[in-house]
Amino acid sequence: MEHNQHGFPEGFLWGGATAANQIEGGFREGNKGLNISDVLPGGKERLKILMSPGFNFEIDNEKYRYPNHEAIDFYHRYKEDIALFAEMGFKVFRMSIAWTRIFPNGDELEPNEEGLAFYDRVFDELHKYGIEPVVTISHYEMPLHLVKEYGGWRSRQVVTFFERYATSIFNRYKDKVKYWMTFNEINGALKMPIMSMGFSPQNEEVRYQQTFQAFHHQFVASAMAVKTCKQIIPDAQIGCMILFAPVYSYDSNPENVLYALKEEELFNYFCADVHVRGVYPTFIQRFFKEHSVELEIQDGDLELIKEGTVDYIGLSYYMSRTDKKVKAEEEKANGNIVGGVKNPFLKASDWGWEIDPVGLRISLNKLYGRYQVPLFVVENGLGAYDQVEEDGTINDDHRIDYLREHIKAMEEAIADGVELMGYTSWGCIDLVSMSTGEMSKRYGFIYVDKQDDGSGTLERKPKKSFYWYKNVIATNGEQL
């Protein structure tokens, strides 16, 4: 990309982002197998239920609703949705492939043709409008069979299954997809491994041992995928994807500053260091020693990780985290999914996520200063209640204000010298919330008539932000 002196570079990749399990529906169609998201009940307690002792990963339609089963029915309505993305002027569309559409159980030897053909149709439709797909290989939808029979990513065997899956889609879509990412928000497993790793630690004593062993297996699998992708699609760009939340010290007390530093190293940089630098960072060795973590590393693993480094860092940014070493219960920012204490300088969303546009500029500067590789903001957005007016309009100025300030922060980061590839706003069309299973927590530029109780026509309707973002893209970020 050629960089302008001011503003966004020519060729900047504007678009939107989704995940298969949150939009597709058709959970049993096309010979698709079950994945973790298919057994997630709807409602604010869904993650608590999922991680509770005795949860059996079975579908119980009498007890729970499962909004992911239909989601917004992208499986049947993708042409309509992609036409709306094209109307906004998307350059790219970030999506994921459902692993269980390609390998229904995860451990088969041959892929499922019906699943492969579905994504062929989606990619062809995107290319019809000149939209490049940005594909996440694994986005919170691990095959349920691998969870039940193998224990998720704790098992070394899953590396082989993932390699087979990744190789199959690289071969199939080598002429249709040039932007890839391996694991969605891989570092999020430090908070909640069930979604991305397929297990909850059996108890606190083994929590770190199990989680970091699973991380090692994912690092090996990611490196294999990078190398295989480069062999099959030489001009491809393949990145990692992390959840980035800068950690601020609550005050200038050196104890709190050191605590914030160590928390940021572990959460924000550990996974990225391995993906980008190809080595385990030095700071993790003390952590392993203090938490009795001893990794099983096979011959050749570390060499493979060194050889399979990524081309760019994809990141989600929703909030920052303010923290201190010792905190009282009433100080905690309970709505913030990354924890911490309440920041008196920040407002919060309807769901308690603290809003910090300057934190995005800080994040981009920190990441680029540390790694010197291109960055790609692949998730950012505001989950909020939207009101449909009597005349049918949806005036989501709250969303426009949020996105405007974050786009300004990206522009400032570019002026700071950060190499930024693009921006895909999360939930460009309303979708099922991962954390709560709600439809009322809306992110999209496009309203979908689907309610928390499952009712609705699934009609698509542009919001005010649709036309605003269309103009942002048309002017390459000059008019906000």
TrEMBL record:
GO-annotated cellular components: cytosol
Gene3D superfamilies: Glycosidases
Cross-referenced InterPro entries: GH (IPR017853), GH_1_N_CS (IPR033132), Glyco_hydro_1 (IPR001360), Glyco_hydro_1_AS (IPR018120)
Keywords recorded for this protein, A-Z: Glycosidase, Hydrolase
Entry's Gene Ontology BP terms: carbohydrate catabolic process
GO molecular function terms attached to this record: beta-glucosidase activity
A Pfam short name: Glyco_hydro_1
UniProt entry tagged with the keyword Hydrolase: yes
Active-site positions on this chain: E379 (nucleophile)
PANTHER family listed in its UniProt record: 6-PHOSPHO-BETA-GLUCOSIDASE ASCB-RELATED, GLYCOSYL HYDROLASE
Family according to the record: Belongs to the glycosyl hydrolase 1 family.
Protein name: Glycoside hydrolase family 1 protein
Annotated source species: Neobacillus rhizophilus
